[in-house]
Amino acid sequence: MPAGLVCLDVERCALNVECSAAPKRRRMSSIADTYYATATALLAKAREQNAPLLKKLGAILGQSVAHGGVIHTFGSGHSEVIGREIIGRAGGLVCVSGLYDPTGGFIENMVGYGTKIAERYDRQYGLLAGETIIVISNSGKNASPIEVALYAKQKGLTVIGLTCVAMSKTAPTVHPGGKKLHEVADHTLDNLGLPGDAIAPVVDGVMAGPTSTLIGATLLNLLMLETIDWLKASGHALPILRSQNMPDAIEYNRELGRRYKGRLSRQLA
């Protein structure tokens, strides 16, 4: 296809099917068109590449949840948004709790700060052996996520890293231990993003349109669904939250949450 043109048959393009669209179905692509076509294709690729691990992790998380375990998340800076996607979520598991950085990632590279975040959370909500924590960092090189992961491993949790492996290879780690998140985690989900996160060219040397949130949030939702699938197939209870805007949902959700009293960072309505 000529440069500057985008096929509107995005589904076929994303599947690498030879395009048969007539010229009349083509138009000059905008930056938004470029982003959408590239991001949706990348999303499909990320799902396919991570699918075997998502299935494996669904069983690991499912066994923990079946025994009353909590799933924890931590993301520094903008990565916190991805973790929040599955916390207290209608249609999601009730037993998900998050560690939060009150500085919003401003001092995420202060060595020792991530350990303090983990210690404080552990005192308040508990990080228990046999549970799982999902640590999110697009670059995988900053100190706080690595320290949270190391602390959780020391406590006997399974650590899942969500990162961009390609981005992680572009710069050295800030952590004095010399490792990056994907080298510390027990399992790593790769969002397959580009170094710098943005994918749509604007002008020479300037890119726009990040993908880490779109793909990261989708991968975590897929992980929750794999966990639910395992729980269902294994005959366990399904602690799935309902939208509090639905009739009787608040009472239903509160009843689900009783088992996790004192362990969830987000209070149920």
Tell me what the structure shows.
The chain is globular, with a radius of gyration of 20 Å. A 5-stranded parallel beta sheet has the order 4-3-5-6-7, with helices on both faces. Strands 1-2 form a two-stranded antiparallel sheet. The chain has a single domain, classed as Glucose-6-phosphate isomerase like protein, domain 1 (Rossmann fold, 3-Layer(aba) Sandwich), CATH 3.40.50.10490. It is built from 9 helices and 9 strands. With 269 residues, it is α/β, with parallel strands linked by helices.
**Helix share, percent:** 40-55%
Total E-strand runs: 9
Structural class: alpha/beta
Low-confidence stretches: 1-24
How many whole angstroms does the radius of gyration measure? 20 Å
CATH top level class name: Alpha Beta
According to CATH, the homologous superfamily is Glucose-6-phosphate isomerase like protein, domain 1
From the 3D structure, determine the CATH topology. Answer: Rossmann fold
Q: Tell me the number of helical segments per DSSP (H or I, 4 or more residues long).
A: 9
Read across the widest sheet, the strand sequence of neighbours is: 4-3-5-6-7
